[in-house]
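pls design
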């Protein structure tokens, strides 16, 4: 960036210093090149800001998740102190640990540690030496990174213990972003008071002791990474996340294809370039609002399958945003932005409208087929939401039973508002589920209050179920929760035949994932659905695919 700014400033200084009689031709040449140089500088500046915003968003997500994990650790410690340390590993105490574990959606287990060994836990009672702590906080909380237990030897866990030895077991992957494109991005938590690393992912090493950190958030550049950090307003730590600066050049190259021809065309086209730059400089929330108004949001469909037969019984509707420059923006980026900036109602309304239109045009005749659509807690809190959705469905001549609504737990709202919203939707005839169960803010007390029909088992638990004992145990806990509450369980992210066989053996009836089909545009989806329906003897009416 500095080199390009210098390239712009140097010609300006030369132009101002030239004498008219001596350098007229040079001045005219530089003035002709100036719009191109300015376009390059502005395009690069915008690309840098977009990379910084992406890193800041990842840091914010990690900090938000760490806050909820910390709260659940504190609640677990408070609950386990019912038993004195001397009786922490009694049979009744271990049984109580299991109940604490089940009620904590972001913890993989709880236990008791003394003399640098985990003496017992909700996963089992085999003592495991875990060594001295890597870090002890100002509150005498100890942290042990990358520890393995006898019950899960191939899974590295973070162990957090209070001064009495009560310990929480955390899978580090739940702290960081689950977005596949960011799976290798360095992220971590660092103690603010002494700048010691609590937990980190990736190869990036930063000397936080010598890093100036004024305010609540900031950006630094190091070793080819754009690093965003953000302080916790409550706890003694901050989160950081890094995005490779090399991705900047891809964005910059795309912008250059637009701005270079405009700059070379002269002052008139330079005005057009400035207008495009102004639009590009808008914030992501403003771009999302504009994208919704201009039809940039599209939906794709991933089949929901009856696992025992392979029959497609429904489809999850997935939103995709393609910006006007052709760039695809991940839902893990634009959905949190929509929730944080009050755009989620408009986003939900758009997805519902597209889904209802597609169902009325393509799925008539499949009486038991349904579409599942994500809604947010903010949608449920709106008093007119249920009536609005029902009116949109009925006005198209469709039945609410053809649409299942899945609550996504990215943001917390008052439980009473969710209960009222879900009850209103069920009265209208909609089936209700909880999406990504186990990684949001839902827990046993939460689902006890909500009148729901099913839960979606998040892909991270399905993926880990065939890798280690701990992963299988977590999955079985979630299946037990569904069965105990008489809820249908739908597994997400099924990618292998082994995962499919294990889920069927555990009594999971439905699922979705790349093993069956990737998310498809409506035309491709309907074509495959017609082939299957034809084999089953079902008549599918609607437009030809």
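designed seq:
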């Amino acid at each position: 960036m500095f080199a390009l700014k210098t390239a712009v400033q140097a010609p300006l200084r030369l132009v101002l210093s030239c004498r008219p009689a001596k350098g007229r031709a040079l001045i005219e040449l530089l003035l002709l090149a100036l719009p191109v140089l300015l376009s390059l500088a502005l395009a690069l500046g915008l690309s840098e800001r977009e990379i910084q915003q992406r890193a800041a968003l990842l840091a914010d997500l990690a900090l938000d998740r760490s806050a909820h994990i910390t709260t659940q650790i504190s609640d677990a410690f408070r609950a386990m102190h019912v038993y004195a340390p001397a009786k922490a590993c009694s049979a009744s105490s271990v049984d109580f640990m299991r109940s604490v574990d089940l009620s904590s959606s972001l913890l993989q287990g709880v236990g008791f540690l003394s003399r640098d060994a985990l003496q017992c836990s909700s996963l089992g009672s085999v003592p495991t030496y875990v060594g001295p702590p890597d870090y002890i906080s100002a509150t005498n909380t100890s942290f042990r990174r990358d520890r393995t237990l006898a019950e899960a030897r191939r899974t590295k866990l973070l162990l957090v213990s209070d001064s009495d030895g009560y310990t929480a077991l955390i899978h580090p992957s739940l702290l960081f972003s689950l977005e596949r494109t960011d799976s290798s991005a360095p992220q971590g938590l660092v103690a603010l008071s002494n700048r010691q690393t609590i937990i980190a992912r990736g190869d990036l090493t930063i000397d936080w002791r010598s890093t100036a950190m004024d305010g609540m958030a900031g950006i630094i550049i190091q070793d080819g990474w754009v690093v965003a950090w953000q302080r916790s307003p409550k706890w003694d730590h901050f989160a950081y996340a890094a995005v490779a600066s090399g991705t900047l050049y891809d964005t910059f190259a795309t912008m250059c294809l637009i701005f270079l021809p405009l700059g070379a065309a002269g002052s008139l086209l330079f005005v057009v370039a400035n207008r495009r730059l102004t639009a590009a400089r808008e914030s992501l929330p403003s771009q999302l609002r504009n994208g919704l108004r201009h039809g940039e949001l599209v939906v794709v469909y991933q089949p929901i399958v009856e696992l025992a037969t392979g029959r497609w019984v429904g489809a999850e509707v997935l939103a995709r945003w393609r910006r006007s420059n052709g760039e695809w923006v991940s839902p893990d980026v634009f959905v949190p932005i929509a929730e944080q900036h009050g755009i989620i109602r408009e986003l939900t309304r758009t997805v519902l409208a597209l889904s209802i239109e597609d169902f009325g045009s393509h799925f008539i005749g499949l009486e038991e087929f349904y579409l599942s659509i994500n809604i947010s807690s903010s949608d449920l809190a709106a008093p007119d939401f249920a009536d609005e959705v029902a009116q949109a469905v009925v006005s198209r001549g469709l039945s609410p039973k053809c649409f299942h609504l899945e609550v996504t737990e990215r943001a917390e709202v008052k439980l009473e508002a969710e209960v009222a919203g879900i009850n209103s939707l069920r009265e209208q005839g909609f089936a209700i589920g909880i999406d990504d169960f186990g990684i949001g803010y839902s827990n046993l007390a939460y689902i006890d209050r909500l009148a729901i029909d099913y839960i979606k088992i998040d892909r991270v638990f399905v993926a880990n179920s065939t890798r280690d004992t701990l992963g299988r145990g977590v999955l079985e806990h979630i299946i037990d929760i569904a069965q105990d509450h008489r809820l249908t369980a739908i597994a997400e992210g099924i990618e292998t035949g082994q995962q499919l066989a294990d889920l069927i053996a555990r009594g999971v009836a439905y699922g979705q994932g790349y093993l069956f089909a990737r998310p498809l545009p409506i035309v491709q989806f309907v074509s495959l659905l017609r082939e299957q329906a034809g084999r089953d003897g079902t008549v599918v009416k609607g437009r030809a695919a």
